Amino acid sequence: MLSREEWLPLARKLDWDYTYVREDEVFPQVISGHPWLPHAEWKEWEESFKTSYREYVDNQYEKDMAVYAVRDAVGRLENIQKLAAPWMNSLKVHAAALPLAEFTGVIGSLRGARFGRDSAWRTMSTFGALDEYRHTQIPLLLFHQLVRWDSQFDWAHKFYHTNNWFAVASRHFFDELTLGQNAIEFAIGANFVLETGFTNLQFVGLASLARESSDHMFERMVTSIQTDEARHAQIGHPVLAVVMKHDPEYVQYLLDKWFWRSWRLFSILTGLSTDYLTALDQRPYSFKEFMEEWIIDQFLRTLDEFGLKKPWYWGIFEDELDIYHHMIYASAYTYRATLWFDFVLPSPAERKWLRQKYPKYWDDMDAVWEQVIERWRTVGPGAANERAVHGTAMPTFCDLCQLPLSAGTPRKNTANVLATEGRKYIFCSEPCRWIFLREPERYANHKDLVKRVLSGEAPAQLPNLLTEYFRLTPDTWGSDVYHGAYDWLAAQKTSVA
Amino acid sequence: MCMSIPLYGFLEGDTLGLLVLAEEGETVLELARKLQDAASIRVARNDKIDFVYNGKAIDPGLTVAQAGLQELDRFDVIWRDKL
């Protein structure tokens, strides 16, 4: 019998010459990706994990058992109910955004498992697809038990099946990156940029936030997921290395596109959780500090390693670190009924902390919060007053990222209009416009929410939009966690009076 | 008959753009006030404002039609004398 060291290299590197069909028929460019190269160019493809199927299953079994053990010990409903209310809403954000996005990763990985150009790549993608199934199933399982207690957790299943504005934006991203992508762009966009650059480290950061918030169930879950991400993200590097030899400009384009698109979603998911939905005394760092320490340094080192340049919009990106997620949070707070989780007002102590962490634009953001707080002061606390502290006009959305037109600063919003082919588009930022113009045929026919309303596809009245199109109900749509009843706000009112 | 024109309105000090339905016959000052009202939950009222379209301040007495605003254009309402 062959030893593991003898049979595994044979099994992993099982490629052969085709005689009945041409190689480009087995791996058509349209689905294997650009550039199309004969297998000779890919035969050195390698990754460092070199896992066998049996080892994979044994290892995953142990990881699953560890998750279940933590769930049984500290993941019961009564444990979750003890968590701070703001953090609970960070959980709801991730419960919705994570599981079915991971499921689209199954599809993308399976494309690599069939159309990746080397057998070792295909083997690794097969494990990647199994990983992504796991990342779908674990959060669905863990959050399901919470639905009977709080129906906002139902959005773990429901989110991607609605036309909620954040679901439209997330689908726009994942449809392109994972569901409809060729194997090479998936490897570079998903494995290299999103997973190596963002989510692998995001999960490390999230685990840290969860630990600080005493949420040991979520901490264990994301840690377990992260160990899978760290492995299958490695598919991206060797694919990128081969494509760099033949078309470095294309690699730079994919990198520039997917870094920006990933940043957009990432800044909302992680930025809001880090700087607003984690209690002040449990924040280990600001979102900007996390980005600088965990994401940017590592990303720039990787670019150097491959001879790639910083994306052309790097200055815009660095500026956004100070402001974009703050613009989004304030906008979303004042349109909280359009979402499936609840929000908190930043307290005076939190605003002081935010000013210290984000001095560049905080004066302008603070003026917005002062105005919102003044509205609560005027109408007084209570669930019945939620509507009086809520936007009524239709918000607007970018024709590329599909997120609110909240880029730039309160002083200067960077939205810009493009008139082309008899139609008008609006983009939140120059990078979103640039991505659209590089592949207009890919994006031009997708209607943002405003165009859906104007064409009659979606209801124009906000309450109807929420219930009929976003599939929210008065019981599940977002509100202020405390309905404006904050001790510090009451104290301020008393002192003013 | 006046036609409603959907426009992207951006108020200085705000955190997002809003969809504003303009009437051809209303003045741009009235349109600016409409945007201020829509954003009042986030931005305090400021009476000293300019209406900016295509990078230029527009005479506040001009109507939407006279100012040449077209469907899905962007306009800005900024604090006076910034241009």
List the helices and strands and how they pair.
The complex is a heterodimer of chains A (497) and B (83).
Chain A (H helix, E strand, L loop, with lengths): L3 H9 L10 H4 L2 H4 L20 H22 L2 H4 L4 H13 L1 H17 L3 H29 L7 H4 L6 H15 L3 H30 L3 H17 L3 H11 L1 H28 L11 H20 L7 H7 L3 H10 L14 H10 L4 H18 L36 E5 L2 E5 L2 H9 L1 H4 L5 H6 L7 H8 L17 H10 L1
Antiparallel strand pairs in A: 1-2
Helix pairs in contact in A: 4-12, 7-8, 7-10, 7-11, 8-12, 10-14, 11-12, 11-13, 11-14, 11-15, 13-14, 14-17
Chain B lengths: L3 E8 L6 E6 L4 H11 L10 E5 L2 E3 L5 H4 L6 E6 L4
Parallel strand pairs in B: 1-5
Antiparallel strand pairs in B: 1-2, 3-4, 3-5
Comma- or semicolon-separated keywords:
heterodimer, A: 497 residues, mainly alpha, two-stranded antiparallel sheet, 24 helices, globular, B: 83 residues, 2 helices
How does this model look, in words?
- The complex is a heterodimer of chains A (497) and B (83).
- By secondary structure, chain A is mainly alpha-helical.
- Helix content of chain A is 62%, strand content 2%.
- Chain A contains 24 helices and two strands.
- A two-stranded antiparallel sheet of chain A has the order 1-2.
- The longest helix of chain A is centred in the middle third of the chain and has 30 residues, at 183-212.
- Chain A is globular, with a radius of gyration of 24 Å.
- Chain B has two helices and five strands; from the N terminus they run ββαββαβ.
- Chain B has helices at residues 28-38, 64-67, and strands at residues 4-11, 18-23, 49-53, 56-58, 74-79.
- Chain B is globular, with a radius of gyration of 12 Å.
- At the A-B interface, helix 17, helix 19 and helix 22 of A face strand 1 and strand 2 of B.
Give the strand tally of chain B.
Answer: 5
Radius of gyration of chain B, CA atoms, in whole angstroms: 12 Å
* Unreliable spans of chain B: none
Q: What is the 3D form of chain B? A: globular
Measured distance between first and last alpha carbons of chain B: 35 Å
Give the number of DSSP strands of chain A: 2
Distance, first to last CA of chain A: 87 Å
How can the largest sheet of chain B be summarized? 5 strands, mixed
How helical, in percent, are the residues of chain A? 55-70%
Q: What percent strand of chain B?
A: 25-35%
Order of helices and strands of chain B: EEHEEHE
- Tertiary shape of chain A: globular
Largest interface: A-B, 37 and 23 residues
Instruction: Specify the helix fraction band of chain B.
Output: 10-25%
* Largest sheet descriptor of chain A: 2 strands, antiparallel
